[in-house]
Amino acid sequence: MRIIRYREGASFKLAALTDAEEIFSLEEPDFISLVQRAAQDGISVTEKVKRIIESSQALNKEIHQLDLIVPLEAPEIWAAGVTYMRSKEARNDEAADGDRQGPTYYDKVYDADRPELFMKSTAARTAGPGGEVCLRSDSSWQVPEPELGLVLDRNGSILGYTIGNDMSCRDIEGENPLYLPQAKIWRQSCSIGPAIRLADTVEDPYDLQISCRIYRGGQKVVDETASTSQLKRGLGELVAYLAKDNILFDGTVLLTGTCIVPPGQFTLEPGDRIEIDITGIGTLTNIAVPA
Ligand code: DO4
Ligand code: MG
């Protein structure tokens, strides 16, 4: 069971999307209100949505006919880094300066107890499905980072899963890791969506396929697939570090790191269409534009 939001005229609508791709209207204005309503009723969100579906009719619409928007206005989006071997190798490549001796910071953080966690985005900087993600004007090596996103409540419980794109400037981070905030955060440097898959409807979050395709002028120029089974850390471990002595909000999103990095010197260009799929969640599509 998935939750989506879409624009209809001047208003935003919340809806449930079943595995059979049927769409049912939900009365609550947003995902967190739905979670709170289910808690007031003493039932899970999935049970709440099932009961609504049983007593209502599916919309006479298909998903591609809806003007989808972010499935929730996440007050904060955080991200974990170097949680997959592929990410560690890519960071070591971009930071290579020829006279490296001993383990890098990336080697160390991959094996350390404490994960890398950083603030990635806010609601105002986050694009939704079909929206535009921006390319920084002072970077010439930019890539999407397809990531599994955890939708959390204020206590750190995982309410659901979404797809995140942690847009990144490999040249800026590679020049100096202290530039990380600039390599990661700018206008529309993050996107989430197209849906939130309710947590208790995911059989095994460590067995999800993540794919990324990039199209340029109608040609597919990147096509990569990986799996959350390659994740080095537990999801609960990442959430526990994020929550430590911190404030989480209902609807905080935690991106769990990338397992896909486009090969070599590949860089995004204006007009590129980025598609990211995760099993059971859907496809997050965005167009790259100049910032
Ligand atoms: O070390 C910098 C960021 C790593 C990251 O974003 C990732 O592994 O996904
Ligand atoms: Mg990342």
UniProtKB/TrEMBL annotation:
Pfam families, per the entry: FAA_hydrolase (PF01557)
Q: Does the keyword Lyase apply?
A: yes
The EC number(s) attached to this protein equal: 4.2.1.141
Which InterPro entries does this chain map to? FAH, Fumarylacetoacetase-like_C, Fumarylacetoacetase_C_sf
GO molecular function annotation: lyase activity
Coiled-coil stretches are none
Q: Which domain of life is it from?
A: Bacteria
Enzyme class (EC, first level): lyase
Answer whether the UniProt record assigns the keyword Lyase to this protein.
yes
Alphabetized UniProt keyword annotations: Lyase, Metal-binding
Q: Where are the transmembrane segments?
A: none
Q: Give all residue intervals belonging to the Fumarylacetoacetase-like C-terminal domain.
A: 111-286
Family recorded in the similarity comment: Belongs to the FAH family.
Q: What is this protein called?
A: 2-dehydro-3-deoxy-D-arabinonate dehydratase
Read off the lineage from the record.
Bacteria, Bacillati, Bacillota, Bacilli, Bacillales
